[in-house]
Amino acid sequence: MPIDVPLLLDQTRALLGARLSHAGVTVRITEVEAYAGETDPGSHAFRGRTNRNAVMFGPPRHLYVYFTYGMHHCANIVLSQDGSAAAALIRSGEVVDGVHLARQRRGSAVDRDLARGPARLTQALGLTLADNGVPVLSALPKPVDEDAVVLHEVAPAGALESGPRVGVRGPGGDGALFPWRFWLAGDPFVSVYRPAAPRPRSGT
DNA sequence: CAAACGATCATCT
DNA sequence: GATGATCGTTTGG
């Protein structure tokens, strides 16, 4: 069963402007990227299910957290139909609650950079591999567990823009084929674009 | 101001 | 054994 790409992109764009909360910090999401599972050369799921990406193959509205570069965590929300391995990487946001906590977690960063970038955002929210696979709850009338991950979707405000995904090499990084990075137009809390670097040579 | 680079380890081949 | 959906610092113009 092929992935419904238009649905995936709609669900990804719908995350813009939403509030994501965990462990005392809330961010307003300003930038996201769509990943279409096994059909997408940029996706961790492209080469099939592994222990790391297993959560992507599970039910939607769960968190896929991975560890990379020996020091960074990044967080995705699993989307679309069960088993399709579709997900959205949460790339940037503005801390709108729990700023003091976020500052503690982010060290000497200026406020604009508290959650601008996928690893920064994940650190500001206090998410780690321990949160891989946890459900993403909807905002409820009752207060939920302080350590739960909660997503509160709101009506998107303003225009959206799109472009190539960041840091993806090969066909998956081709902005003409996969213009699957979305952000709030003109928002200062959006990461700076860095083209995927060609791999450094080992010899000569 | 921009470009280069080192950090540091889970995961996959 | 190589690589990475990155970041912060350093280096150079």
UniProtKB/TrEMBL annotation:
<comment type="similarity">
    <text>Belongs to the DNA glycosylase MPG family.</text>
</comment>
<dbReference type="Pfam" id="PF02245">
    <property type="entry name" value="Pur_DNA_glyco"/>
</dbReference>
<keyword id="KW-0227">DNA damage</keyword>
<dbReference type="InterPro" id="IPR011034">
    <property type="entry name" value="Formyl_transferase-like_C_sf"/>
</dbReference>
<dbReference type="GO" id="GO:0003905">
    <property type="term" value="F:alkylbase DNA N-glycosylase activity"/>
</dbReference>
<protein>
    <recommendedName>
        <fullName>Putative 3-methyladenine DNA glycosylase</fullName>
        <ecNumber>3.2.2.-</ecNumber>
    </recommendedName>
</protein>
<keyword id="KW-0234">DNA repair</keyword>
<dbReference type="InterPro" id="IPR036995">
    <property type="entry name" value="MPG_sf"/>
</dbReference>
<dbReference type="InterPro" id="IPR003180">
    <property type="entry name" value="MPG"/>
</dbReference>
<dbReference type="GO" id="GO:0003677">
    <property type="term" value="F:DNA binding"/>
</dbReference>
<dbReference type="GO" id="GO:0006284">
    <property type="term" value="P:base-excision repair"/>
</dbReference>
<keyword id="KW-0378">Hydrolase</keyword>
